[in-house]
Protein: Polyphosphate kinase 2 family protein
Organism: Pedobacter cryotolerans
Amino acid sequence: MALKTNTKKYLANTNGKFSLKDYSTTYNGHLSKEEGKADLERVKTELSIHQESLYASNSHSLLVIFQAMDAAGKDSAIEHVMSGLNPQGCQVYSFKTPNSEEYEHDYLWRHYKALPERGRIGIHNRSHYENVLVCKVHPEYILNENIPGIDDVKKINKKFWANRYESIRNFEKHLVDNGTTIIKFFLHVSKDEQKQRFLDRIDDKTKNWKFSAGDLKERALWDKYMDAYQQTIKETSTDAAPWYVIPADKKWYARLAISQIIDETLQSMKLKFPELPAEEVAELGTLRQQLLDEV
């Protein structure tokens, strides 16, 4: 049964003037919640089939990147997407603040180590993009990288960020050229919805652990974060490694849209199950008869 949502509408169009204000946070595909959940179950079934062909072919990998403001629903989206996949063929990494060892390398090092192997799906909860998002809002974090010549925040200028965007584009192009398909999701939640979700975390004792005072400090920088996301998506969304801006005020719909995009991406890879040489196929017939002849 065909789904009622058009995933192309979420593809970041960066050919002209790109603005996050042009993308809805509340869109639900004109579906009811019940319809959306039913469609999600159908997509999960398809995902399982296409993942198996990816695993069997062992020629390509898929990297799925999630970025968003706090409480946008990244964790729950990943949970629901994963529920339709075989864990043997998936790798999930949630990136936190770099540790001392990671700071001894360039900022892409730890992300390169976490890339999916051929035949597998890698899901990155936050990613190398933190280095042009949270670090753009808090440029003082860049000083922890000990980059030659960058010993003062004042030296982190437009040229620095332009070079970093270029490095990310080149990094992703290299991955794509070597068999890794990349899709990137920005879960676009409204400030009002984030407020409600923060209140829910405070009011529900089982969710208290998800909330910290630091969340409100970052919320106060909302406009700066939106500017950073907008610039990042504009600079790094390419045909080979596109960004999708997902309406995230309704979690059930965000999960459906994300799952469908992943499924469509796997289909577009046109993967096939390996075919045995003729002599091996012939041997299978002999072995089959051998099994049938067992007493």
User: Anything to note?
Assistant: The chain has a mean pLDDT of 93.
